[in-house]
Amino acid sequence: MSQTDNNALLEKILSNGLITPYFQPIYDLSNGEIYGHEALSRGPMNSTLFSPDPLFTLAQQTGNLHKLELLCREKALSKFAKLELKGRLFLNVSASLLGSPDHQSGMTLAILNELGLDQKDIVIELSEQHPYDHNGLPRSSVDHYRKMGFQVAIDDLGVGYSGLQLWSELQPDIVKIDKHFIQGIDKDEIKREFVRSILTISQRLNCLLIAEGIETQQELDQLIEIGVTLGQGYFLGRPVENPAFSTHPYLAKQSQRRSQFQEDHAETVQTLCRPTPSLQENSLLEDASQCFKKQPDLVAIPVLNSGQKPVGVVRRHQLHELFSTPYGRALYEHKPVTNLLSSDVLIVESNVSLSSVSTLMTDQEADTLNNEIIVVREGKYIGTGHLRDLLKRITELKIQNATYSNPLTLLPGNVPIHREVSRRLLANENFYVAYFDLNDFKPFNDFFGYSIGDEVIQLVGSLIKNQVNPENNFIGHIGGDDFVVVFGDLDWQQQCNSILETFAQQVQRFYNENTLQEGGVWTKNRQGDTLFHPILSLAIGVVHPNPKQCTNHHQVAELAAQAKKFAKQQGGNHIYLQPYLTAHEPEAES
User: Fold this and answer.
1) 482-487 and 530-534 as β-strands: parallel, antiparallel, unpaired?
2) Coil, helix or strand for 350?
3) Where is each CBS domain found (predicted)?
């Protein structure tokens, strides 16, 4: 289609209102409930301007961007009201539109009133991809929307150079992390650190964080582990014209599992949580004073809104200072606690790992570092933890890990391995157990000596640690040359193949030129017979336990040992997969 035809098509779209709104869900990752929908606009079906990129690009080139956006906004609001969709509606708005003389102030509010919608359910979403630098983004325009009751979000944080500056200047209610930092986050530590940092900033600024572009279960699980509570993406739901979105089944199932097992999960902040008195926003400072008087060891009292969600704390020393001033008590004791509210407090979901909480605590600025941790479940207050308890528990876990770890590789030994397998069986998780063992290791040890043998064992441990993603998998060292990896990742075979390929290359450095040319070493056995033993290779036996039939870690260990046996029989660097059916013959080979 020619440029002239496209221009004519755009004019037709604008004249006849040929825009169809699509809606993509935004989920609460903690429970699977719908948080809201982002409105996305499409042109006529099967036309060159159906997709948003060519549509909005042409509108901008022809000076029709404002007219198109206003049309899209009106269509989205009307359809949102007609479908009676749950949660908030996110409307994409061009920055240049806000500062333009063509912008019709109050138009959105007028449409809402006509449709019977509440402006508190509407989020004005500003994208870094829009041309801020052309016309600028006046803070007054953003404040204009906020004063009318709208929330403001920054989209695609991280795409442009100005993201953090915009965050600082506009002080949005919501920030969306660009999909670039979400894609592959389960395999990229740098991206994980970026998201953790942004999460820390958002919590400190009392700003909601939404992860965009979630396309795999592994990315979703990683974000939940980090503590991100809102997300959208193709894995959760694609944009559709007539959504019938309800509670997300995977998120709901995970939420139920967390609720069921969090008390037994020693690695979550749930273990630090203690019941602590709380106050409501309309409680008086005198109520807080009485609360502190009854509990002398209490240093801070959480303050909750009407939905039982924490909004901050009242601290003992601040209240004491206020009441100690002349007429301080008389002037303030009948004032609401919100007059002395401190919002610089760490609020975390009960299923967040202790290591993640530790990172959030240490990332705080030194002058604002606080001791209390407010623990919530699905956003609602359940109790508080303390920095002292966090440090104590982490120390205990480190000591426990050292007690049960292998001294040569410092990897967890039998007890932690068994606990991990039992935990996954109990949680009905889908996982694989890989048993690693060196072929012909004893003759190698006899020929080269135990010191060199230990170096080979350390090499195997190092390769496994380097190739296996620690986030969703568990690495253990049973002893000697026997290692175990409990895989939660579906790409376990790719990771195992990488280990085998790297081992085959690096093990050669333990042999001299002659033994490499011969392909191995000659040694005598106990009977005095001289036997040839090929260059060391690694056998991996893998089982896929069925939690419905496999009731304990002993059965899994038996199956893994059988799989390892068959892997060793193949010779060379080899993986042998035994899907779980019975503890007898393996069914398949890879």
Assistant:
1) unpaired
2) coil
3) 272-331
CA distance 244 to 240: 9
Least confident range from 27-31, 106-110, 386-390: namely 106-110
| Backbone φ, ψ for residue 529 (5° rounding) | -80, 140
Task: Give per-residue burial for 550-563: e unless 16+ CB within 10 Å, then b.
Answer: beebebbbebbebb
| Position 334 pLDDT exceeds 50 | yes
For the chain, the residue count is 590
Using left for φ > 0, alpha for ψ between -120 and 50, and beta otherwise, residue 480 falls in left
Q: Kindly calculate the radius of gyration of the chain based on its CA atoms and give it in whole angstroms.
A: 30
- 396: Cα separation from own chain's centroid: 26
pLDDT class of 345 with cuts at 50, 70, 90: confident
Q: Would you state the pLDDT for residue 584?
A: 39
Residues 6+ apart with CB under 8 A from 565: 541
Domains of the chain: 269-396 (3.10.580.10), 414-577 (3.30.70.270)
Distance between CA 201 and CA 207 in Å, rounded? Answer: 8
Task: Identify which of 72-81, 351-360, 522-531, 545-554 has the greatest average pLDDT.
Answer: 72-81
Helix (H) or strand (E) holding 466, with range, is helix 450-467
What the block records as the tokens of 120 is 């508190």
Between strands 88-93 and 34-42, the pairing is parallel
12, 56, 282, 318 from 337: Cα distances, Å: 58, 49, 7, 12
- The amino acid occupying position 22 is Y
- For residue 485, pLDDT over 90 is answered with yes
Buried b (16+ CB within 10 A) or exposed e, 570-583: eeebbbbbbebeee
Beta strands at 432-439 and 482-487: parallel, antiparallel or unpaired: antiparallel
